[in-house]
Amino acid sequence: MARRRTGLVFDERCFGHRNPPGGPPWLAIPPFERPERLAATFRALEGSGILRHVERLPARSAPRAALELVHDASHVERVLAEPRATLRLDHEAWIGPGSATAALLAVGGTLEAVAGVVAGDVDNAFVLARPPGHHAEAARPMGFCLLNATAVAARWAQLARGATRVAILDWDVHHGNGTEGIFRDDASVLTISLHQEGLYPPGTGGLDASGEAIVNVPLPAGTGDAGYELAFERVVEPAVRAFAPDLLLIGAGQDAAASDPLGRMAVTVPGFRSWAERAVALAEECCGGRLVAFLEGGYSLRHLPAANLAILEVLAGLPPSFEDDPVGCDVPTGVREIERAAVEAAA
Fold first, then answer.
1. If you ran DSSP here, which 8-state letter would residue 257 be given?
2. pTM for this one?
3. Where are the alpha helices (DSSP H) in 120-261?
4. Residues recognised as catalytic
5. What percent of the chain clears pLDDT 70, i.e. is strictly above it?
6. What is the spatial distance between Cα 16 and Cα 320, in angstroms, rounded to a whole number?
7. CATH number where 145 lies
8. Structural domain of residue 288, as residue ranges?
9. pLDDT averaged over the chain?
10. How many helices (H) and strands (E) does the chain have?
11. Domain total for the chain?
């Protein structure tokens, strides 16, 4: 396997954003989207030794002008407010002390990664930041998402770095409604969303979505590695090749993992590695290897660290730490007829 120069964005200041616990004070159920997602991932990266083989990139705060390339000014104003206590902005979207700093670093780190990849300083990059972004619409935060990092990065890459055509591949288990909506009428940005059918947000992500360059692949609950492989082969890869992007952005949400509490899919760590391998091969074929992945969802502290490590190993051209899934969930093998039908309907 060829070694590649891979950038990594990680900044502990992203820990400062905290969603509130659920239930009454005497129960205090931990939120799904929490700092431990990054902390556990970084421990896995340290333990594996991979940090010796990647280049750390800075997570600088995104300028407000960049945010307003895709977000309304009023939306940005709400997100960047610094309340003394946590408050709810919209469905499953909160801000509190530290939220603005984390959100700006998540977007700014993605811009730094794009700048490094487009300039050729690194071949590709992985942005391990939070909060996630793909549900954030032009004027609305939702679903743990405050600012849409991949959408901002796509438009910024076009306007500031000369990337005429940008493809965004979102493999989070939830539909990337915010990204799709932002670019609905823009044929210069291809949005592809692989997601569990009918999960979140309700009523979005169907095959009948209207727009200039939108590809949705809603998959049935229980889809595992083989079903996703078929979706890549029949839908994702042909769409990206036909679009011929200058840059490939990945909305890398690992919540299709078999142990994830917010998805009902059955993907393993080797499955995520395979997705990354296919994405790297597509980028090398279509856009000189220029690829930036941004962490979206993924809420299983069993699967997420290992899956993130597997993706980073692929980006860097390193052998796998795990030949088999270290978590050991029971998962289906092969492709069911219901999955085959769903993929063919999207093809």
1. B
2. 0.97
3. 149-161, 177-182, 225-231, 237-243
4. 135
5. 100
6. 31
7. 3.40.800.20
8. 6-20+27-346
9. 97
10. 11, 10
11. 1
